[in-house]
Specification:
The chain is of the alpha+beta class. The protein has three domains: 131 residues, Ribosomal protein L10, N-terminal RNA-binding domain (Alpha-Beta Plaits, 2-Layer Sandwich); 64 residues, Molybdopterin biosynthesis moea protein, domain 2 (Alpha-Beta Complex), CATH 3.90.105; 70 residues, no CATH class. It contains eleven helices and twelve strands. α2 crosses α4. The longest helix is centred in the last third of the chain and has 22 residues. The termini are far apart. 16% of the residues are buried.
Length: 293
């Protein structure tokens, strides 16, 4: 029995051993490792993506089993790396980089292009048909739209979609009639490009819901946090390079207000105190109904 096992081991193709060793080397060398799904990725787009990322990443693809063996062999040297194995979906590949996970995801996401939906594909997100007037004349198309859950009417001799409609929910398989309607409406809900499923860094796994950051919203939150920190520092009297000038100006305004209120005849407020006295005199004169002399 042992001889049989040894015979099987001896017949493992050399290229497979080298393939596993190459993945082990890359796993050891690079701190950031992403599992990507290359399913439905046309060759021209793949070549363009390779060219775009050549300076930043190493993209390697092999049989799932070979990659799994390499990952499992490195789990004692790289804590938590085995968590990538369940993330190798569809037609899996691994990306190795020293860039940060969020920058990597952002770069790859920005270089995806829209594509029409095909029957049998899985919706990457909710597919929504927006309310609008279509170019179709009333006819059988009304029933076809209704069959996929789209409410319609007629406006100006054309079929109108009355309300936004979710025709396929995220994760559901796209049916042939839905794919046909989407194509006729010119809606391209799919994306051609590398699909990052998860990214490994220092024992942590980051999935799409964490990596997909709205940059504008993130910038707005940073700006808002900065303003809150500034306001807190002002209220607490914390002097630093950002607050010192503002706090000196505020102290000057506050002391000036106190001096005016207390009728203190200092150089900086003399005119304001005299103007205040004149206003109070005029108010008293009016209240007492004292005529001009």
């Amino acid at each position: 029995m042992s001889e049989g096992k040894e015979k099987k081991k001896a017949h493992v193709a050399q290229y497979k051993k080298e393939d596993v060793k190459e993945f082990e080397r890359l796993i050891a060398e690079y701190p950031i490792i992403a599992a990507v799904n290359m399913e439905n990725m046309p060759a021209p787009q793949l070549q363009r993506m390779r060219s775009l990322l050549r300076e930043k990443v190493v993209l390697r693809m092999s049989k799932r089993r070979m990659m799994k063996i390499a990952i499992e062999s490195m789990k004692d040297k790289k804590k938590g790396i085995e968590q990538l194995i369940p993330c190798m979906k569809g037609m899996p590949a691994l990306i190795f980089t020293k860039d940060n996970p969020f920058s990597l995801y952002n770069t790859i996401s920005k270089n995806k292009s829209p594509a029409p939906a095909k029957a049998g594909q899985t919706a990457p997100k909710d597919i929504i048909v927006k309310a609008s007037v279509t170019p179709f004349a009333p006819g059988p198309v009304i029933g076809e739209l209704g069959a996929v859950g789209i409410k319609t009417g007629v406006e100006g001799g054309k079929v109108a979609i009355k309300a936004d409609s979710v025709v396929v929910k995220e994760g559901q398989v796209i049916k042939p009639n839905v794919a046909s309607i989407l194509a006729r409406l010119g809606i391209e809900p799919m994306e051609i490009g590398l699909d990052i499923v998860a990214v490994y860094e220092d024992g942590m796994i980051y999935k799409k819901d964490v990596l997909a950051i709205d940059e504008e919203e993130f910038k707005a939150r940073i700006a808002e946090a900065g303003q809150w920190a500034f306001n807190l520092a002002i209220e607490a009297g914390i002097l630093n390079k950002d607050t010192t000038e503002f706090m000196i100006q505020k102290a000057f305004r506050d002391s000036k207000a106190v001096a005016i209120e207390g009728n203190i005849l200092a150089d900086a407020v003399l005119g304001d105190v005299l103007a205040k006295a004149e206003r109070e005199m005029a108010a008293l004169k009016s209240e007492a109904n004292i005529p001009d002399s």
